[in-house]
UniProtKB/TrEMBL annotation:
Entry GO MF terms: DNA binding
Modified residues (4-aspartylphosphate): D53
InterPro entries in the record: CheY-like_superfamily (IPR011006), Sig_transdc_resp-reg_C-effctor (IPR016032), Sig_transdc_resp-reg_receiver (IPR001789), Tscrpt_reg_LuxR_C (IPR000792), WH-like_DNA-bd_sf (IPR036388)
Coiled-coil boundaries: 121-151
Residue ranges of domain Response regulatory in the record: 4-118
GO biological process: phosphorelay signal transduction system; regulation of DNA-templated transcription
Domain HTH luxR-type: 134-199
Keywords, alphabetical: Coiled coil, DNA-binding, Phosphoprotein, Transcription, Transcription regulation
Organism name: Parasutterella excrementihominis
Protein name, per record: Response regulator
Amino acid sequence: MEALIRIVDDEETVRNSEIFIFKLAGIPAAAYSSAEDFLAKDDLTVPGCIILDLRMLEMSGLQLQRCLLEKGSDLPIIFLTGHGTVDAAVMALKNGAVDFLQKPAKPERLLEVVKVHLQQNKELRLSKALIQEKINKFERLTDREKEVLREVATGKLNKQIANELNIAEQTVKIHRGNAMHKLGLRSALDASAFLLDIGRVTGDE
């Protein structure tokens, strides 16, 4: 999915200027005149980043940032403001903002910052999607296959696993083979890395 820049600013001239900058650079962008407008219309599932004004009528940029944190959004936030203060910058960065720029930001500087964080968010979303795909595959295993796979991941032999689970060694071989095949794994090291990736090393999920 193509990444999208969100511009949230109550000054129309600023929104239009930034849209023009990104259009020239061939980067998709959407503009919102308020935090409320952004929350009502934006699709947070689309990767990208947010260029956010600090001071706006009603909901401020910092308030929107906190709202997005509560929603679990991973979109990078770049504050761009003409009213920046040290306290505001510290608060914004403490809450996870990736940058804090003064208006008017130089187009080349703005593009430099945006391109970095667009790419990082796309990579983060891809990583999350790959992990979720692994989790989905794991959850389709039977309970016994999961149990055997965890033992395999510790490097135990089939006979040891059979004794540990109090089942026949042949049964272990069957469940081990099925689990490894379903997950596309070849070795105990593969199984260990897979379970670490998805956070399912133990049976507490």
